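Design request, tokens follow.
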């Protein structure tokens, strides 16, 4: 049998590589580049400086992988120019296929080759065939899932003639490699970004202040809430191999639900804030997801840039909801299965996506069959049910394998008394955070973060920012990488 390394858990990237957002090195890197950027008079020089900064940022993780970024940029820029002027539909399909082959080929090789090879070995072993291929030992390039989807959206939109090809290689390269969102999103489409590169942005104090506020808020979510408050509880439960009580299982799973929200939403918030300091706008990636009423609503609020990408470039091309009920259900399930696989090369991620697919299908069927059920969803009455079910699905996302997932689920739903792992303080902390977090989310569920912040008097808002900054600097230096860096 081939020797395989165990699947890397969701929290395997614990220690931070260079130039991570929650590091003093990145603060220095950002300050220097901002100073140079706003000092330069030429818009071309500014864009070139942004490009160099982005490549340096990516090279700090693993220098050779910059070549993959360059390859994706060069291929899609060249193919895009041809797609713009070519009228022959057969040639256009060939050009699109070439883009898919290069980008998905890179993604499949580096992210999924070892996984599928291991799955093949297991399958052959199950039918009595022993096969021992060489171990690949591939290193996953950070952010490859994000920038390949980003460049693919460009060529697909060109193929559909929804955008025009970029005339400037420099502009396109900046779009692909823009460092604030390069390694963990949001997944930005060309229609949202390229037009911002046509004219130099104007420095505005309001944008600077809001950008700094977003950075502080994102760091507070990551450093204080995710790393200092809830990660220890989630880690303790999911690392425990002995007896586990029902209360522990639920508290650990709910803690992870908050951890992954604060971790990923924190990254997205910082990315949007950093981009704003350079004069660019990035799309919103989260919108009070735990205030979702139903699972369609959840995916309109969670990782918005990915769910929108899957909808527009996978679900709708498969047929969307234009066919029969069975065809629509098939399209939904396939989209969510592939969405789960996008998150990680493990069957537990596929199961997580498949469960969400089944939930979406069931919700759609019930909505069509019952006006009362539809009204419950639309008026927010399904929030108390949606959140705990979403927490249950996170078990498959966090667990190392199906054995651990089944153990956790059995403990959650088959009562086991006693506190085996967590203290009463842990229970009180997670319970209080859940109560307050859900109340705030539900209260503001129909408002954007900008709307909420605008309602706060400026002196109070300033005090909040100062308080968050003090909490960040006084938090223990766990220095964890962001969870979504491995995707």
């Amino acid at each position: 049998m081939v020797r395989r390394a165990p699947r890397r858990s969701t929290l395997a990237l614990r220690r931070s590589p260079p130039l991570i957002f929650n590091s003093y090195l990145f603060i220095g890197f950002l300050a220097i580049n901002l100073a140079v950027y706003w000092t330069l008079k030429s818009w071309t020089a500014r864009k070139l400086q942004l490009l160099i900064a982005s490549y340096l940022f990516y090279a700090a993780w693993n220098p050779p992988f910059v070549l993959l970024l360059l390859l994706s940029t060069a291929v899609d820029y060249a193919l895009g120019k041809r797609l713009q002027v070519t009228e022959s539909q057969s040639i256009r399909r060939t050009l699109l296929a070439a883009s898919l082959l290069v980008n998905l080929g890179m993604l499949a090789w580096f992210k999924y080759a070892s996984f599928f090879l291991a799955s093949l070995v297991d399958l052959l072993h199950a039918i009595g065939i022993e096969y021992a291929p060489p171990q690949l030992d591939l290193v996953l390039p950070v952010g490859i899932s994000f920038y390949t989807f980003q460049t693919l959206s460009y060529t697909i939109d060109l193929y559909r003639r929804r955008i025009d090809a970029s005339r400037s290689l420099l502009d396109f390269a900046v779009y692909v490699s823009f460092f604030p969102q390069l390694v963990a999103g949001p997944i930005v489409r060309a229609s949202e970004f390229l037009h911002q590169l046509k004219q130099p942005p104007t420095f505005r104090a309001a944008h600077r202040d809001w950008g700094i506020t977003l950075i502080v808020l994102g760091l507070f979510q990551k450093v204080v809430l995710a790393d200092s408050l809830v990660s220890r509880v989630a880690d303790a439960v999911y690392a425990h191999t002995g007896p586990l009580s029902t209360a522990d299982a639920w508290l650990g799973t709910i803690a992870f639900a908050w951890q992954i929200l604060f971790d990923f939403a924190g990254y997205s918030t910082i990315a949007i804030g950093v981009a704003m300091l350079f004069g660019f706008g990035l799309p919103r990636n989260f919108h009070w997801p735990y205030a979702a009423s139903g699972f369609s609503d959840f995916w309109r609020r969670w990782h918005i840039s990915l769910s929108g990408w899957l909808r527009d470039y996978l679900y709708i091309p498969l047929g969307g909801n234009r066919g029969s009920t069975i065809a629509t259900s098939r399209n939904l399930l396939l989209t969510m299965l592939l969405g789960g696989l996008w998150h990680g090369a493990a069957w537990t991620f596929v199961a997580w996506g498949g469960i969400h697919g089944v939930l979406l299908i069931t919700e759609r069927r019930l909505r069509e069959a019952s006006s009362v059920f539809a009204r419950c969803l639309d008026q927010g009455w399904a929030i108390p049910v949606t959140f705990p079910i979403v927490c249950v699905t996170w078990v498959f996302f966090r667990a190392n394998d199906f054995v651990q997932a089944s153990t956790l689920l059995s403990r959650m739903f088959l009562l086991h008394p006693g506190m085996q792992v967590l203290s009463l303080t842990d229970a009180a902390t997670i319970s209080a955070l859940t109560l307050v977090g859900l109340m705030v989310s539900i209260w503001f569920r129909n408002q954007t973060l900008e709307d909420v912040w605008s309602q706060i008097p400026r002196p109070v808002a300033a005090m909040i920012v100062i308080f968050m900054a003090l909490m960040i600097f006084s938090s223990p230096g766990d220095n964890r990488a962001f969870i979504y860096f491995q995707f």
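Comment from the thread starter after seeing the answer: thanks! The radius of gyration is 23 Å.
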